[in-house]
């Protein structure tokens, strides 16, 4: 069992004042961290290799260890009724810089809720945007507890002067039979993690008729690894990244017969990348069975090199791991950024939406947004309010081109979103025409596209997703848009989690 608990109460009033912002951190000696740099303090680290490590099931849940794990074992929570979950007792003072990192997966559930109980306020705190589970594999999740709200309040964030006594994950109120969620590599820590994982060791490869099965040891890190990056070099050709895995194993079904070399490195929850492992060589004898590419993966092949160069330009300058949403009144909706946050998994999010504004406004406003937020990523949704006839479309595209160019000069990676359908005519022809020009622009500029229009069109009855005016989104519509951004950003981050 690998678990450690450190309470800030050990340092008394001075540390509580620091957590509330009253004493500079430099004036204090923080409690000992589990390895790593002094600006990261780990309170709980749990791999569930031997036990459930203090977690308690409640409200009709059953907690058990499962071999369906990223490495050895994981904590599975089977839910028999709504609000069923599991809870870990903790004892931590102060919300500032406090984070929960873990890998999660679910069955018959799109996300699990999270509460952290603040005994000081006598109220549960909860996240804005419970992280969506990926359809397959492990979802890396990073929650920022100082950005939570109190359950009794619909807005705002928690006090800095908190005293957390428990953290709990739970199912929604309505569940289907067979609902469960699984936790792996749970870490509760404080601080800004700048330390990369250590070199991956123990890389092995075994060829079979199914493909090449790779496995390795978990990477050592001051917090934890969230992803492993796998690269392959067929015969004498150069290495090329081929996959990411949340687990310490991966089956390569796309390797052609013959000799291949592989190596792997780890990425932690704050996108610090470790060094490559030693290279291993294996003879593949399986027939190639490549998986079909999604629309977003196909786009990635076009923009990968360009986005990589833009990102390098911003390295060390932009606000890392932060996304800003920039658009008109659709982006201005209060709930909208929560759907994006839920889809991004580990990123922080801000949103700036301006009612009735067009692409020309975006062109003039983007410099101010970049100066204010300096984000690593900007997701742009403008054009809903534009005239969409052939006469006006070229000017709109030039506006969007200028917005992208401003981002790239700042070292910010830009993504353009297709504007959603409008009204009740199924084809939504003016919006479709606008989006044809927009996607062509994205390909020409070699940048990602967030396919909001297309995902709305595929979602079924539009009245579920659009309000009575046929323009603005319902909560379900905002979730569709958030997921569209999430799919685009997943491929962007696939590009950036590499070492060239």
Number of helices: 9
Which outline best applies? globular
Q: How many distinct beta strands?
A: 24
What helical percentage do the residues reach? 10-25%
Mean pLDDT: 92
CATH architecture of the largest domain: 3-Layer(aba) Sandwich
- For the record, the CATH class of the largest domain is Alpha Beta
CATH topology of the largest domain: Rossmann fold
Tell me the domain tally: 3
Quaternary structure annotation: single chain
- Assigned CATH superfamily of the largest domain: SGNH hydrolase
Query: In terms of structural class, how would the helical and strand content be classed?
Result: alpha+beta
Q: Biggest β-sheet, characterized?
A: 6 strands, antiparallel
Residue windows where pLDDT falls under 50 for at least 5 positions = 1-38
Distance between the termini: 37 Å
| Rg, Å, rounded | 23 Å
Strand content: 25-35%
């Amino acid at each position: 069992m690998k678990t450690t608990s450190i309470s800030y109460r050990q340092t008394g009033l001075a540390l509580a004042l620091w957590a509330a912002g009253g004493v500079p951190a430099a004036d204090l000696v923080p409690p000992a961290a589990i390895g790593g740099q002094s600006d990261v303090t780990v309170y709980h680290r749990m791999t569930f290799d031997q036990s459930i490590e203090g977690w308690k099931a409640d409200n009709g849940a059953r907690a058990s260890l499962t071999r369906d794990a990223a490495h050895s074992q994981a904590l599975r929570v089977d839910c028999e009724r709504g609000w069923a979950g599991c809870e870990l007792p903790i004892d931590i003072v102060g919300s500032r810089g406090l984070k929960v990192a873990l890998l999660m997966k679910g069955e018959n559930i799109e996300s699990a809720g999270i509460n952290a109980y603040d005994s000081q306020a006598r109220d549960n705190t909860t996240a804005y945007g419970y992280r969506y589970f990926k359809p397959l594999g492990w979802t890396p999740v990073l929650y920022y507890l100082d950005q939570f709200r109190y359950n009794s309040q619909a807005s705002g964030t928690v006090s800095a002067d908190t005293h957390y006594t428990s953290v709990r994950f739970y199912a929604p109120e309505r569940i289907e039979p067979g609902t469960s969620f699984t936790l792996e590599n749970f870490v509760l820590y404080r601080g800004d993690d700048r330390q990369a994982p250590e070199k991956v060791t123990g890389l092995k490869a075994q060829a079979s008729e199914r493909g090449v099965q790779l496995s390795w040891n978990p990477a050592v890190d001051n917090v934890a690894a969230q992803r492993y990056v796998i690269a392959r070099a067929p015969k004498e050709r150069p290495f090329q990244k081929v996959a990411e895995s949340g687990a310490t194993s991966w089956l390569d079904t796309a390797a052609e017969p013959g000799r291949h070399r592989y190596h792997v490195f780890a990425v932690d929850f704050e996108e610090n990348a470790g060094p490559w492992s030693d290279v291993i060589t294996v003879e593949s004898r399986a027939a190639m069975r490549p998986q079909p590419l999604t629309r977003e993966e196909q786009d990635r092949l076009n923009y990968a090199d360009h986005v990589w160069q833009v990102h390098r330009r911003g390295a060390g300058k932009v606000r890392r791991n932060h996304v800003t949403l920039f658009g008109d009144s659709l982006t201005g909706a209060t709930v909208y950024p929560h759907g994006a946050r839920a889809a991004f998994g580990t990123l922080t999010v801000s949103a700036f939406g301006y009612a009735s504004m067009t692409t020309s406004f975006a062109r003039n406003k983007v410099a101010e947004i970049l100066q204010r937020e300096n984000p690593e990523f900007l997701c742009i949704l403008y054009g809903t309010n534009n005239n969409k006839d052939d006469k006006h479309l070229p000017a709109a595209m030039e506006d969007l081109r200028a917005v992208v160019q401003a981002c790239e000069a700042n070292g910010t990676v830009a993504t353009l979103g297709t504007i959603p359908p409008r009204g009740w005519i199924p084809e939504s022809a003016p919006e479709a025409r606008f989006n044809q020009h927009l996607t062509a622009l994205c390909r020409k500029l070699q940048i990602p596209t967030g396919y909001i229009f297309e995902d709305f069109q595929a979602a079924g009855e539009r009245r579920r997703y659009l309000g009575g005016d046929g323009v603005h989104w319902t909560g379900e519509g905002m979730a569709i848009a958030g997921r569209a951004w999430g799919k685009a950003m997943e491929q962007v981050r696939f590009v950036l989690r590499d070492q060239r």
